[in-house]
Amino acid sequence: MYSSGFNASISSASYATSAPSSPPNPSRSPPAAMLSRNGVHSNTAMTASPVTSTHVVPSPAATSSSTALPIPVIDTQTLSTLHNVVSRFLDGHRDAYGKRQSALWLFTNWGRTIISFNTVIYHRLQTGVDCYAEIINFVARSKTEVLFQTKLLGWQTPGEWRAQTTDIFSYVIAPLVRCHSQFSGPGWSYFIYEDSLQRLAKKALHSVKLHLGRYPLTRLDPSDHITGSVVNSFMRSPALHAFETHLGTGMTVAVDDVHLPLKADMIQPPFEFESAAPTVSSVAPIIASYT
């Protein structure tokens, strides 16, 4: 388990912000209209604490008659304390490329599990260090990809299982062909994007992290559904500020597929390939229940 200081710091962190004001846009749902686990709109999902003062910055496409985006007043001392606590843990468990864990994962096409709500996945950071998460919300889709919001469950490290007891949200992009058929249906097509979800999700995470952090003048698109979801995640789990926003380099698979051999569903060539390359020393982490 985390030390009491780790969870207490996350639980006590809060922002004083003003709720973003979004002009109506028929092509995209407003950021405040988040999707719940069962796919039903919730107009109360995006909340903010009262503020003492705000400054107004015009939105990118603002005119003299358009609604302006407010700049949130951030409790920088609380944010700094929280960032330092979570950062120390993430810095001690970087990925194989030496990078800090990202809030955006790319699901591998290996395996057989059909991805849907409540699917538990894990993200390999390095040998012996895996982060587990549960898919909780649909965010958007393209013709080939689906973007889901996840909730982190904890980390398996070489020394112990470290459960995440407070909410930290992140994102995963999965191939549409690996997802439940409902996500290819007409109901979810309202949230379809023509552009790459990988590019859009990275841009949204980066921009929102700046806007709600040290650079509040960073402009956000108030009519973009992905941006709205990311704002919701940062407001509900400020610990996201400690995570990176690039596309994670580690392999992400469904927990239900870990029993499959690596050659599962592979079409074998007519002859065997052999390699004399050395292998990485295996690490046997202590596996504990994450439920």
What is the gist of this entry?
The chain is built from four helices and twelve strands. The chain has 291 residues and is of the alpha+beta class. The strands form three sheets. Strands 5, 6, 7, 8, 9, 10, 11 and 12 form an eight-stranded mixed sheet that branches. A two-stranded antiparallel sheet has the order 1-2.
Q: What would you report as the Rg, rounded to the nearest angstrom? A: 20 Å
Beta-strand percent range: 15-25%
Low-confidence segments: 1-68, 284-291
- Separation, N- and C-terminal Cα atoms: 13 Å
Give the arrangement of secondary structure elements.
Elements lengths: L3 H9 L21 E2 L5 E2 L12 E3 L11 E3 L4 H16 L10 E5 L13 E7 L2 E13 L3 E12 L4 E3 L5 E7 L21 H15 L13 H12 L7 E4 L4 E3 L37
Parallel strand pairs: 5-10, 5-11
Antiparallel strand pairs: 1-2, 3-4, 6-7, 6-12, 7-8, 8-9, 8-10
